[in-house]
Amino acid sequence: QVQLIESGGGSVQAGGSLRLSCAASARTFSSYYGGWFRQAPGKEREFVAAISQSGGSTYYADSVKGRFTISRDNAKNTVYLQMINLRPEDTAVYYCAARLLPLRPSGNDDAYWGRGTQVTVSS
After folding, report:
1. Contacts of residue 107, Cβ cutoff 8 Å, sequence gap at least 6
2. Residues near 34 by beta carbon (within 8 Å), at least 6 away in sequence
3. Per DSSP, which regions of the chain are E strands?
4. Per residue in 92-102, pLDDT tens?
5. Are 43 and 106 within 8 A, CB to CB?
6. In the prediction, which pLDDT does 26 show?
7. Nearest-angstrom CA–CA distance, 105 and 118
8. How far is residue 15's CA from residue 31's CA, in Å, rounded to a whole number?
């Protein structure tokens, strides 16, 4: 069982920055792929970014490439999402996920999920 707790959400103006953190309870967190998904009101949850167990490989949705950076610190059992140049369309609840297999844009039924943190970007 892995518990994930997100933090760092908030309200910013367009062009601003936020850094999300996801703290995991598992002592073997370095065995898990980590990732971030988001869900805007009235929309389905969508993939944002993922990172391999060592952090050597990262993956991004086209909509966030060049603006978001995912990273991890396995010594702290934490995954981060640095977000810059935020846009109103980035407004959503952001969820952290962890999975022993690679996270995919959909179908991660066996992944562990956090409860989410709200990000609101005003124009």
Report:
1. none
2. 22, 24, 50, 51, 70, 72, 79, 96, 97, 98, 103
3. 4-7, 10-13, 18-24, 33-39, 46-51, 58-60, 68-73, 78-83, 92-99, 112-113, 117-122
4. 999 999 999 99
5. no
6. 79
7. 20
8. 35
pLDDT over threshold 90, residue 104: no
Model pLDDT, residue 109: 83
Name the token pair of 60.
Answer: 């991004």
CA distance 102 to 43: 24
What is the SS3 assignment for 29? Answer: helix
The pLDDT tens digits for 44-81 are 999 999 999 999 999 999 999 999 999 999 999 999 99
pLDDT exceeds cutoff 90 at 107:
no
Torsion of CA 60, 78, 110, 91, to 10 degrees: -50
C-alpha to C-alpha distance for 86 and 109, rounded to whole angstroms: 29
Place of tokens 């995991």: 24
Give the span between the Cα atoms of 87 and 17, in whole angstroms: 10
Counting residues of the chain whose pLDDT is more than 90, the rounded percentage is 91
